Amino acid sequence: MVHPTIKIFKQIIPTILIVVTLQSCYYDNEEDLYPNPPECDTINVSYSQDVWPIISSNCTSCHSGGAPSGNVYLDNYDNIVIAADNGSLMGAIKHENGYSPMPKGGAMLSDCNIAIIQKWVDDGTPDN
Questions:
Q1: Beta-carbon count within 10 A of 70 CB
Q2: Angle at 65 (CA atoms; ends 99, 118), nearest 5 degrees
Q3: Helices H / strands E in the chain, number of each
Q4: What is the model's pTM?
Q5: In this structure, are residues 51 and 116 in contact, taking their beta carbons and an 8 Å threshold?
Q6: pLDDT digits over 56-79, tens only?
Q7: Does residue 103 have a cis peptide bond before it, meaning omega lies within 30 degrees of 0?
């Protein structure tokens, strides 16, 4: 005769294994984990806090120094304003016709980064 405790274990162990196995097949869905992506704040855009960090991390490696790409300097506020005022800054980062798409390599800046720079340009390119 089989002891009652062993009989219960023989019934429970397979059930536990099935539950554990099915649980391990769960895949996280990004939309479920992060239903509200962080919003893009374009309310108080600042050159020094918002625009310059985007440009310095995405543009200055090619557009500064002694021989910048395309002879376009984006290494300081005055040069960036020149590009903003003549439309080439937004034309390039939005990949508009007639402008060389930037950054090179096909990847555009994020929609948020483009919106931040556009807001700064629309606000008159303040040095803030």
A1: 11
A2: 40
A3: 6, 0
A4: 0.70
A5: yes
A6: 999 999 999 999 999 999 999 999
A7: yes
CB-based contact 89:121 (threshold 8 Å): yes
Tell me, rounded to whole angstroms, the distance of Cα 82 from its chain centroid.
26
CA dist., res. 26 & res. 44, Å (int): 42
Q: Which residue has the tokens 């939309």?
A: 31
Question: 109 Cβ partners below 8 Å, 6+ apart?
Answer: 54, 58, 93, 103, 117
First to last CA, the chain: 86
Residue identified by tokens 């893009």 is 40
Cβ neighbours of 85 (radius 10 Å): 12
